[in-house]
């Protein structure tokens, strides 16, 4: 993956939680249907938080910085 | 003496011992005291940064908000997650520069980046003004928690004094290490308590989470979503924006970042912490169940403690109180350490530049009881205005953000004068809007309803940015003219 395309990937992934929480929330502001026992808005917020972690996981895995720093630490990442 | 009191006293002895013995085998110069000699591993840094998730404000506040305002409480889940996304890039940048320049405080960052000492003093003052109410809130929360969970046997005033004394003692002795050791116990305890009673209460009372939510919806239609009114979607979104931006501008956040051994920790935290803070979901469950079990409380913030007392045996109430106690003391220790360092390094050293490092380290420790006493004084003077003071503090520290972000650019077009003017004007606008009106709606009456409840901090932030840019443009062109004039007279080529 080239540096530019990786940059685009990272920026778009980082935008996902912002769009979900700040842009889409007004459209999800309803109590029904209940999903997993949660009122719909709360489910949407929980989903957004989980997606935040998923997006940041992909960013972390594809970021070469996390390999470069490995030299400076005692940790070994396979 | 009941079961709860025994548990509370044991927890208090434990926190004091952990705090005091934390210094063993540690270097205790100013760098060791304030940022742990920059040697903290992933777990401690994770917990110090996660410390922001569980303060007394979230412990009592998240359940209290769910109890009193329903869906509006969900914003607490959002701002942390967004803040951690930003932290993926921001925290390593702060760490890298801070470590290479041996910075200890947030004002140090501004002094070094803008090459100007006045801006450091301004940042120090804004930071301290914001941190003292935060500390006050932790102490007030501690008092409430201990009084309630001891079934009134330990009065709140006594708990606050004893808590403040213990806090002062172990911060003077161990500095940031006191917060670090206590942070481990705190998070284990809070996880067990919150998940445990967050599942037990709704299951015990309603049979299932689903049924609990349906009962709430039947009793209070629309409460589980955002309703029109003060806490509408406009308020929700602006509060998330403001809180996630302010998140990093707390002075003690910089201390926690500088204390890390390596920057990779922050990137890993950025993916783990959003999931970790989902534990707050269980705090919401507690707040909503409280609405069914103990309706009609005058103060929503008491809902978690009230429902625990109503439904749980005495010794478990004690464990809840112990968890709450740690929630107050860990951030309290972090705040006191940071206040001490900032005052010693950015105020005392400015006044007497020749002071040897050892004397600055002593000054930092002397500041600790002083700050604690100021917080206690304000606490016993103030009363219920504290939550407002905290929101004021949040809006205050957010004013540091624009000029902070600009320093991350390779060529920063903002001048020290511009940055200083922006943050001073921003802070003044926050203070004025907060004192004169409870929200910005009077000033912004012309805007559509959804935008009326926009947080005062966001308004001040916009004014801050405008002032910052304008003053920078003026001072830059002045500097350019000066430089040109200088070049003309000296006739030497620009370096």
From TrEMBL, chain B:
<feature type="transmembrane region" description="Helical">
    <location>
        <begin position="233"/>
        <end position="254"/>
    </location>
</feature>
<feature type="transmembrane region" description="Helical">
    <location>
        <begin position="385"/>
        <end position="402"/>
    </location>
</feature>
<protein>
    <submittedName>
        <fullName>Sodium:solute symporter family protein</fullName>
    </submittedName>
</protein>
<feature type="transmembrane region" description="Helical">
    <location>
        <begin position="414"/>
        <end position="434"/>
    </location>
</feature>
<feature type="transmembrane region" description="Helical">
    <location>
        <begin position="184"/>
        <end position="203"/>
    </location>
</feature>
<feature type="transmembrane region" description="Helical">
    <location>
        <begin position="6"/>
        <end position="22"/>
    </location>
</feature>
<dbReference type="InterPro" id="IPR038377">
    <property type="entry name" value="Na/Glc_symporter_sf"/>
</dbReference>
<dbReference type="InterPro" id="IPR001734">
    <property type="entry name" value="Na/solute_symporter"/>
</dbReference>
<feature type="transmembrane region" description="Helical">
    <location>
        <begin position="154"/>
        <end position="172"/>
    </location>
</feature>
<feature type="transmembrane region" description="Helical">
    <location>
        <begin position="73"/>
        <end position="95"/>
    </location>
</feature>
<dbReference type="GO" id="GO:0022857">
    <property type="term" value="F:transmembrane transporter activity"/>
</dbReference>
<keyword id="KW-0813">Transport</keyword>
<feature type="transmembrane region" description="Helical">
    <location>
        <begin position="275"/>
        <end position="295"/>
    </location>
</feature>
<feature type="transmembrane region" description="Helical">
    <location>
        <begin position="116"/>
        <end position="134"/>
    </location>
</feature>
<feature type="transmembrane region" description="Helical">
    <location>
        <begin position="454"/>
        <end position="474"/>
    </location>
</feature>
<keyword id="KW-0472">Membrane</keyword>
<dbReference type="GO" id="GO:0005886">
    <property type="term" value="C:plasma membrane"/>
</dbReference>
<feature type="transmembrane region" description="Helical">
    <location>
        <begin position="315"/>
        <end position="348"/>
    </location>
</feature>
<keyword id="KW-1133">Transmembrane helix</keyword>
<dbReference type="InterPro" id="IPR050277">
    <property type="entry name" value="Sodium:Solute_Symporter"/>
</dbReference>
<keyword id="KW-0812">Transmembrane</keyword>
<feature type="transmembrane region" description="Helical">
    <location>
        <begin position="360"/>
        <end position="379"/>
    </location>
</feature>
<comment type="similarity">
    <text>Belongs to the sodium:solute symporter (SSF) (TC 2.A.21) family.</text>
</comment>
<feature type="transmembrane region" description="Helical">
    <location>
        <begin position="43"/>
        <end position="67"/>
    </location>
</feature>
């Amino acid at each position: 993956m080239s540096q530019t395309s990786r940059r685009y990937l990272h920026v778009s992934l980082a935008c996902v939680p912002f769009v979900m929480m700040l842009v889409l929330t007004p459209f999800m502001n309803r109590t029904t249907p209940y999903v997993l026992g949660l009122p719909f808005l709360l489910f949407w917020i929980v989903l957004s938080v989980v997606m935040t972690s998923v997006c940041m996981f992909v960013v972390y895995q594809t970021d070469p910085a996390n390999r470069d720093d490995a030299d400076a630490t005692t940790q070994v990442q396979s | 003496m009941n079961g709860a009191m025994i548990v509370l006293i044991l927890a208090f002895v434990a926190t004091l011992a952990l705090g005091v013995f934390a210094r063993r085998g540690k270097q205790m110069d100013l760098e060791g005291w304030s940022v742990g000699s920059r040697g903290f591993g992933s777990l401690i840094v994770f917990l110090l940064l996660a410390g922001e998730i569980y303060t007394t404000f979230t412990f009592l506040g998240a359940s209290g908000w769910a109890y009193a305002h329903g869906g509006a409480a969900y914003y607490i889940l959002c701002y942390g997650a967004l803040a951690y996304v930003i932290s993926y890039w921001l925290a390593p940048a702060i760490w890298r520069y801070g470590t290479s320049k041996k910075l200890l405080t947030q004002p140090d960052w501004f002094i070094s980046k803008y090459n100007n000492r006045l801006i450091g003093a301004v940042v120090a003052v804004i930071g301290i003004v914001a941190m003292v109410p935060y500390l006050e809130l932790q102490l007030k929360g501690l008092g409430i928690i201990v009084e309630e969970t001891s079934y009134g046997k330990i009065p709140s005033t006594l708990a606050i004094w004893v808590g403040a004394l213990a806090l002062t003692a172990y911060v003077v002795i161990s500095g940031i290490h006191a917060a670090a050791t206590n942070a481990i116990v705190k998070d284990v305890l809070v996880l067990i308590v919150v998940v445990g009673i967050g599942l037990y209460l709704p299951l015990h009372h309603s049979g299932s989470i689903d049924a609990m939510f349906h009962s709430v919806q039947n009793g209070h239609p629309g409460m589980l979503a955002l309703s029109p009114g003060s806490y509408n979607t406009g308020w929700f979104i602006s509060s998330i924006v403001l809180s996630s931006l302010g998140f990093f501008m707390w002075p003690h956040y910089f201390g926690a970042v500088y204390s890390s051994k390596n920057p990779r920790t922050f990137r890993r935290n950025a993916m783990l912490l959003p999931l970790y803070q989902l534990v707050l979901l269980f705090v919401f469950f507690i707040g909503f169940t409280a609405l069914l079990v103990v309706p009609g409380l005058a103060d929503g913030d008491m809902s978690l403690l009230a429902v625990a007392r109503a439904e749980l045996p005495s010794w478990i109430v004690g464990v809840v109180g112990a968890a709450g106690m740690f929630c107050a003391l860990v951030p309290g220790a972090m705040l006191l350490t940071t206040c001490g360092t900032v005052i010693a390094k950015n105020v005392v050293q400015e006044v007497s530049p020749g002071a040897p490092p050892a004397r600055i380290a002593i000054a930092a420790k002397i500041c600790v009881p002083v700050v604690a006493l100021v917080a206690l004084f304000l606490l016993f003077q103030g009363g219920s205005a504290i939550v407002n003071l905290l929101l004021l503090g949040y809006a205050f520290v957010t004013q540091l953000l624009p000029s902070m972000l600009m320093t991350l650019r390779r060529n920063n077009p903002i001048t020290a004068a511009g940055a200083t003017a922006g943050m001073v004007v921003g802070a003044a606008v926050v203070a004025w809007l907060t004192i004169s009106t409870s929200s910005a709606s009077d000033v912004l009456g012309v805007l559509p309803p959804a935008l009326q409840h926009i947080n005062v901090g966001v308004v001040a932030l916009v004014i801050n940015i405008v002032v910052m840019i304008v003053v920078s443009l003026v001072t830059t062109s002045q500097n350019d003219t000066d430089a040109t004039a200088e070049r003309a007279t000296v006739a030497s080529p620009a370096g």
